[in-house]
Design brief:
The protein has eight helices and two strands. By secondary structure, the chain is mainly α. The protein has a two-stranded antiparallel sheet. The two termini are 26 Å apart.
């Protein structure tokens, strides 16, 4: 007589879900890194210059490239939007979130949020130094800048920050529509901040795309680390 040992159903489900999460995380990270490296390679070879210039000038009055399209209040609004991806605002948001999570007994979530945001900031700064791409010189800058252009730090850190916070918040609510709304708001913020950087003439479009790709890489890392099997799902039957 032979005996066949099988895993309990809950353990099997946990194993399958973890395996699926690992595969999904690997594929998402690989795609984000591939997108960043592809953009970086094309940028370094000068292949994106023509497209960057064309897209940047599309947001300017044809007879006066120093003047962004739209009314004056729109330009001021874009400065407000771009501040939402700035170092000061994102630092305040991150510190507040980390402290609130830690005080609520969610030390793991607090640690992951801090790690993702700091990682995004440091990687963005290092890559700016490595690629040393000058800021756009076709139009006046609508916002003060003091670093290199590639990748966009605002885009990188806003993706990492707002997406990882959306993941944390979505994990605290039960309704699917509420979770979808949280992710939609985060996505809208990210897109608006990226657009504002090009509109204000402080970044080339490919800087923003590369920043989104780099920030998404960190957000995927956070997504993987924040996952937790529902209580009892992996326990003994």
């Amino acid at each position: 007589m032979t005996f066949r040992w099988t895993l309990p159903a809950r353990v099997t489900r946990f194993r399958d879900r973890l395996t699926g999460r690992i595969i999904a995380g690997f594929l998402a990270t690989a795609f984000s890194l591939w997108a960043f490296l592809t953009l970086a390679g094309e940028m370094a070879e000068g292949e994106t210059r023509s497209l960057d210039e064309r897209l940047l000038l599309m947001l300017r009055v044809a007879s006066d490239p120093g003047n962004p399209i739209g009314p004056r209040w729109l330009e001021e609004a874009m400065r407000d939007v771009t501040a939402l991806g700035g170092f000061t605002v994102l630092t305040l948001i991150t510190v507040t979130a980390v402290v609130a999570l830690a005080r609520a007994g969610r030390a793991r979530q607090a640690g992951v949020v801090a790690m993702v945001v700091i990682g995004a900031e440091l990687s963005s700064d290092l890559l700016k130094l490595a690629y040393a791409r000058p800021r756009p010189d076709l139009v006046p800058h609508g916002s003060y800048v003091y670093s290199n252009s590639f990748p966009s730090g605002h885009s990188t850190i806003s993706v990492a920050t707002y997406l990882v916070l959306a993941i944390v918040l979505a994990g605290l609510v039960q309704r699917r529509r509420s979770r979808a709304m949280i992710h939609a708001v985060a996505t809208l913020l990210i897109l608006s901040i990226g657009f504002s950087r090009v509109y204000l003439g402080v970044h080339w479009p490919t800087d923003v795309l590369a920043g989104w790709a780099l920030g998404a890489t960190w957000a995927v890392v956070g997504w993987f680390l924040l996952w937790r099997e529902p209580a009892g799902a992996a326990g003994p039957p």
